[in-house]
Design brief:
Chain lengths: 793, 132
Amino acid sequence: MIAQILIHMFLGCAVSSTVLYAMGSRGNANALKVARGIFSALALILLASSTILITLILSHDFRYTYVQSYSSADLPTHLLIASFYSGQEGSFLLWTLLVAGIGVILAPYARRFGYEGAAMSFYSLILVFLGLLLVAKNPFAYVWQTYAADGIQETFVPEKGRGLNPLLHNAWITIHPPILFTGFASMSVSFVFAMAGLVKREYHRWIDVALPWTLAATGILGFGIMLGGFWAYETLGWGGFWGWDPVENSSLIPWLVSVALVHTMLVQKRTRGLVKTNMVLAVAAFVMVLYSTFLTRSGVLGDTSVHSFVDPGKFAFWILLAFMVTFVAIGVYLVVIRSRDMNIAREDFTPTTREFMLAIGSALIMASAVLVTIGTSWPVLLEIIGQPKVAVATTFYDNVHLILVPLVFVVNGLSLLLQWRSSPLAVIRRRLAVAAVATAACTAVTVVLGVHKPEMIVLAAAAWFSLVINAQHMWSFITKSAAMLGAYVSHLGFALLMFGVIATSGYTVVHHAVLPQGVPTAVGDYTLTFAGKEQVEKQFRDREKFRYAVSIARGSDSTTVFPVLYYSDFNQRQSAFLEPGIRWGMIRDLYISPKATEMEDVYKKTTVQRGASIKMPFDTTITLQLERFSMPTTEEPAPDGRMRMSALVQVESFGVRADSILRVPTRISQTSTGMAFDPEWTAIPGTQWGIGLVKIVRDNENVDQSTADFVFRDMGKPLPTPKETFTVEFSEKPLIGLVWIGVVTMVAGFAFSIARYARQAAQRSTLLVSTESPHSGQQTIKANTANLHPNES
Amino acid sequence: MNPKTLRVVIAIVLVAGLGTASVYFLQGSSIEYTNLQRAGQLGKTVQVVGTWDKPKGMNYDVESNIFSFTMKDEQGKSMFVELTGAKPNNFEIATSIVVKGRVEGNTLKASHVLTKCPSKYEGNASDLKRTT
């Protein structure tokens, strides 16, 4: 109850801090002071609400719908923590908490630059909408509130939680979503600085202030996206790391816009050009975060994704829509009313300059963002305009990027060959010739190594061009100034990533393999052997989870991997949960995706119709007549909870009828392939033989047509273990390691750049404080800019 | 050519080139949602929404890696489906399925089958009352 009140208090605080910060930005010092207090209060309230939610989850308080829906008592602590954001309500709370947390750091930073009032007012407005979403999708609703319509009483306490989807049971769930959400949350910062810049008519200075934040947001979001890809590859067994799925795309789009923004901000910093572009891109980056949230959280994409979409309800849908529309409106309005003003600062670029190439590069990255947006939204767009529904195949994204990515690489290489402002053509020709020769040599090696598809050769050549030039720049800066390396390191990482993509997407070899237990099977150049399985994670009662030991051998080299396949009560054992087994390697990963498993029949089955008789196969002196079946309702369930049914059999030995009817029970469960029968071996009185019931086919219209399958064995001998056949997809994925190395390198480059520009910004704020009027401050900065980059060409 | 003209030319070439290419790719990659009748006439890759015709059963052939079943579209027409791959997740409990594939003869050769289960990850009141 307290928590529900806290959420409403938070919304109130967000509204007042929006208003008070706005008043503060107009010079009301008292309002500013109050606003600061309220903002701290708001952050504390969110911290308190989050603490309450995590406490409720850890203490298994299933009176709360959210706790009941996403956690259970048998989860280990790290998964209980993940339950916090595994549902829509909790993930909105995490997002809000992160936005508020970043706000606490942002406010004093903005204050140093004189941006506090304006920036924090816009920032608080974001929190207002998040607060509305939390009111609509409240994580603290009680079960009896949620299910009031189903007649759930206030006193009702569910005995157990539904638990966390077993798909999510691994360490990545505790890492990937929080990082991704931090990335999303930090994307708000460049937006609010841009808006503050427009309000204050400071069209250049906001760039310096915002740049470290834009870089941080881009780096963190990029890292978060990669972790998602790695998770999909390593645990979920989707085979690849990227599938152009709407959920993946929706985090990629704001990232792409943000990457473009980083580059255009750099251009403005050096040349004072692209003023309006930067404003528009800063708005676009943030709005795309909202649009992505809308696409993936409003239920509009229904059946086009592997991710699950839960319809959040009408209220939340309209809030999400209003959230997006409001911020588009604010951005467009401010850019339009300041448009003439900003034209004064305009500067034209000559094509043979670095700034021109950076602008082209950003345009190409934006083209990618726009096309991915169109592709992702296409089904929704067509539906809105009343066209028949259409899905977009992933080939669209592949084809588009086979054009865009090589262009981006070439433009990136050229931008580094050229200089800011103007470049002497003779120097460029020499540099270009060197780079071209190196590129040609590297590409030739790539072709010799086995890359033969024309489009892949083009992509590889472009990547080499960029890599060669960036490596050369790195080399020349590494001794002079390590702080300058950021951009080159990131570009190098991008090239490495693309080499990984070329290798895995173009040259992965996939085999389908059927592996009977203990039988070495030749698959491609390898010999696979399914050795056996071992149960793991026995603490969970909803599943029997097995690791399948599969050895992969080639020549004398042999290794064993452990793919996983199991069923869980979470989805009523309707379909299997799968995890791949991977042999990691520098040259290639060997990847085993489990597909299916089948048990061998140890005994020969005998089918008997109801009312009919058979001779016992091992002893024909015995006759068995299937009288009828008992109904499951009349049977005690088995100790493990499975349903029981019995066949009632009349036994005759040497023509003499036994005194009593023999009950032959079996345990029944639902599995992926229908009903599964687990026989309870029953001794046939007076013999050493046992009988088991392994299948019942009921015919309700004509009961006499019902049949039973029986198996027989010598009760004096131990049960033989049936052999299992494990079906897998075995693939060799060359150089996939470059994908991860590439992204990590990219992110590392961001870290260098963040450090560099944060230091510059800090120097600037000191300068500003020491000067009286903002105008002379700007002058000083301008004069100082020239001194700050003596090394840059 | 002066710098200004060059800029304009580059801009036009980029926008026109990329625009044309993307429209072309988008058309090539668009996969229509349709019914079985039209899927048979079109003969190209489409998506068909429908349900699994349960009484006709299903089969996964381990050797050929083909999962087969019969589907019924929203108009009630049914067709035999062969999916390359194993049985899709939640196949039996799906309230509807989306089959992506191409009709060859009297068989819908599918590359993907998406299953739709509205309550997949959401609790409901009856779940609450179920106890261990």
